[in-house]
Each structure stands twice: as C-alpha cells, then as structure tokens.
Amino acid sequence: MKKNLLRLMVVSFLLGTISFSSSSSSCVQKNGTVSGNNSGNTIKIGVYGDLSGPTSSFGQSTKNGVQLAVDEINAAGGVVGKKLEIVIEDDQGRPEQAKTVASKLVVQDKVQVLIGEATSTNSLAAAPVAQEAKIPMITHASTNEGVTQVGDYIFRVCFIDSFQGAVMAKFAAGSLKAKTAAVIGDVNSTYSKGLTEVFEQEFTKLGGKIVSKQFYTQNDPDFKGQLTTIRALNPDVIYIPGYYGQVGIIARQARELGMNMPLLGGDGWDSPEIWKLGGESLKNTYISNHYTSDNPAPEVQNFVKSYKAKYGAEPDSMAVLAFDAVNLLADAIKRAGSADSQKLRESLARTKEFPGVTGKITINDQRDAVKLAVVLELDPAKNGYTYKDTIYPGGMSPAANSASSR
Ligand code: PHE
C-alpha cells in the first residue's frame, strides 16, 4: 500500500497534464496528507475523461454536465456550507492515462471524490486507484458490469449492460420481428464485448439466430471487409455496440454496400458527432439510451433549457448523466453531513429514488443504479431522435417513476 502511494506520488510529479479549477477564486488549503478530506473551504471533485482523443465528445459533454450542476449548486449556497470545486483531467481516451490522471487527482489534488470515466474500459483501468485510496468514485456513464465490481467505493448512476443489451435484443425480436442478426463490435472495448455477449444470449433465448460476429478496432479506417461478410448472410438486423466515431462510418459503409436493414446500437452512439459521420445512412437505426430530451417532464425540460442556454446545444445522454451524477453526489454529501470519504461511501450506497433527470435512481447492493432505458429511433432529417419505448428493469414499475419517464 505504502509503496503504491509512493509510486502514485512520483507519477503525479512527473505528470505534465494541465489541471484547472472551476472556481479559481476559492482557496483550498493543502494539508499534505494523502486522504486530505475536509481540509478546505471547498469540496473537491476530481473529474477525468477524454477531452482530446477518439471519444472526446464524451469528455466534453461530461465536462459541460458537471459544470452546469456545480454552478447551480454553488449558486444556491453549496453543500454542507461548502462550495464544490472541480479539478478536471484529460485522459485522451486511453486506459493507462485514465489510471494515471485518476492517481494524480487523488494524490496530488487530494480530491474527495472522483467522477468518471465515461467509457467502461477507462473506468475499469482507473477504478482500482479510487478503491485502493478509499476515495468514492462515481461513474456517470460506464455500463459494463465489471466496473462497480472493482470494489465497495465504486458506484454508477447509469443502468448496466445486461439490461441495455437485453432491451435491444427484445426490440429486435419483438418490435422488428427479426429472426436473424449479425453483430459488429470493438474488440478492445469491454463495453462492446459485454454487449455483444448479452445481445447474443438474449436474442437466442427469444428464438433468434446470430449468423455472424465481426470485430474491429478503433483505429480501423474501413469496415467493408466485415460488412461484406455479413452482407452475404443477409441478416434481418445488425447490432453494432460501439462508439459514435466508428458507428457513423460503419452505417455509411453498410448503406454504400446496399445493406438497408435496421442497424441497432446502444448509448455509445449518442453524440452530436454521429450525424456528421453517418448522415442519411442513419435512417432505419435504433438505440437504447438513458433519456430523451423531448420528454415533457418538467425536470427534463428545465435541464434541457438551462443546458441550451449555457452551451447552445442540445444535451446528449452523456451530459445529462454527468449532471445527475453531481446532483446525486451533492445529495449524498448532504445526507452524510460531510464529504468524509467513508461516510460519503455509506450515504451513496443508501441512495434511494433520487430524482435524476434520467429518471429515479436507486443504488442497489452491487452499487449499480436501477434505472429505466428508452429506445430511440435516429432521425437524420432533424439530427435527433424519435422516442419509441421506455423499458423498466425487473423490480421497477412505471408508476414508481411516472414523474421522470414517459
Ligand atoms: N456506456 C458506455 C460505456 O460503458 C459509455 C457511454 C454512456 C457512451 C452514455 C455514451 C453515452 O462505455
């Protein structure tokens, strides 16, 4: 343990990464201890994400969502008499860097809690740092089961992939009446591999057949080889559990090859970038997602309005999950009476029916959020989505959630 901390400290000294604080006027006393809890007038939140790499849309939206929530909370006087302060780090979307910057935030900046990462692979790389230091980490968006299994200090405010993958398998077999499906996934992404497995299992259970499983990496410039193999098998649908950067191109190349069947995906598609990459090819495509901005519920519309006013853009699900993560965190700090890491851990674990913009959030024994999912159809004519369905996980009823769902 001691040796590890020393190593982390050395790493953090060698780091040339930029860190900035959202409230530079606030003074944070550094007391030199590693835990450093409650040492100043602010509660320090470390945020880490991809601000410059292949998934930078996720990091930018995270930053926006966090900032909006922090500004609102601080304007209302802060939490337990303290203002929230953000320290944000760019991990360039790389797992090793995610681990390095998480260490830097914990050891050097002495943050009291971590928010991040967006993607499961990067959260999995960084979570052991939080767990070892006993600093609560809340991932707002990482849906792979394994993330919270790292340990009892790791939480999430989003649903998990065994649910999200099953939602789309049911949608394929039920609403689209698909009998056959092919899957194309990212071989280096834990998220993508997990969803491939769940989709296959559930679709097969429902009587469907997976006719082909193809893989790519984030660096592949072209997906026509994999698509040509699938074309020969002519499946009813193709499930693509990847991120917007590759999915947009895959959709375009599929249509270029004359493949017009429905394409299905998950939350990883949701970025404004996908419209630029996929364009018209995104007709006849569907995803599972965390929320829809046209939900008339007042808490959704209020959020969308404030977000648009601040950033001039429609919030994607990454932004809203980041917003929910900070508000849920503030609520847990309030209930704990302080941001002391152990007390905070316990109060996060006791979160019940927290009214998030993405729906009511209850943290279960696995520190996962029990949440609804929505199915959306992509509409390239408006660069936006058409709402299709809301799906509830076992044990959660529509009535219990009526204010936030639709
Ligand atoms: N769920 C994705 C993952 O675990 C991340 C993601 C969430 C992407 C929400 C977009 C929107 O990797």
What is this entry, summarized?
The chain is α/β, with parallel strands linked by helices and 406 residues long. It has helices at 2-14, 56-75, 95-107, 120-133, 161-173, 190-205, 224-233, 244-256, 273-278, 298-311, 317-336, 341-349, and strands spanning 20-21, 42-49, 83-90, 113-115, 137-139, 154-156, 180-186, 209-216, 237-239, 263-265, 285-289, 354-356, 359-363, 369-370, 373-379, 384-391. The strands form three sheets. It has a seven-stranded mixed β-sheet, with helices on both faces.
Helix content: 25-40%
* Strand line-up across the major sheet: 8-7-9-10-11-15-16
Q: How many H/I helices?
A: 12
- Helical/strand content category: alpha/beta
Q: Total strand count, please?
A: 16
The number of distinct structural domains comes to: 2
Shape: globular
From the N-terminal CA to the C-terminal CA, the straight-line distance is: 48 Å
- Which CATH C-level class of the largest domain is it? Alpha Beta
Task: Please give a structural write-up.
The chain has two domains: 17-159 and 298-370, Rossmann fold (3-Layer(aba) Sandwich), CATH 3.40.50.2300; 161-289 and 373-401, 3-Layer(aba) Sandwich (Rossmann fold). A hairpin with a 4-residue loop joins strand 15 (373-379) and strand 16 (384-391). Helix 2 packs across helix 11 and helix 5 packs across helix 6. It is built from twelve helices and 16 strands. The chain has 406 residues and is α/β, with parallel strands linked by helices. Residues 8-38 and 402-406 have low confidence and may be disordered. The structure holds phenylalanine. Residues 58, 118-120, 141-144, 191, 267-268, 270, 317-318 line the site of phenylalanine. Residues 58, 118-120, 141-144, 191, 267-268, 270, 317-318 line the site of phenylalanine (PHE).
